[in-house]
Amino acid sequence: MTAFARRARSAAARMHPELSLVSFTLLSHLEERHGCRASDLAAHYALDKSTVSRQVAALERAGLVVRRTDPEDHRVHVLELSPAGAATLARTVRERRAMFDERLADWHPDDLDRFAAYLLRYNEHPAPLPGIPPGN
Question: Which of 27, 43, 106, 117 has the highest local Cβ count within 10 Å?
Fold first, then answer.
């Protein structure tokens, strides 16, 4: 598990050296949801609002996230990927998929099925580990 986590952090560092793995998890969530509020990120990942605020500020400084006023409620800001954020995330997803394809190329299909089933089972555990977003 430690080696798996180390590789995940390494992939995140290649994406953008100054940002953490949590930041990339947040970027992926913003892409999947087509944007959301910072409070939604905090609630979804069971993170403190101040933690999300620091991560979002770093993403904004890096030009990967933009803040827009919600058209339905002008008091609320919605976070969205910037074009640079979308391109960076897409590039990293391609690189990670290529890495996984290479590492798993010689695995038997039955082994891949079992591995996928075990990962799903592991990720379905109800209690997230402290400081680690659920599903990661």
Answer: 27
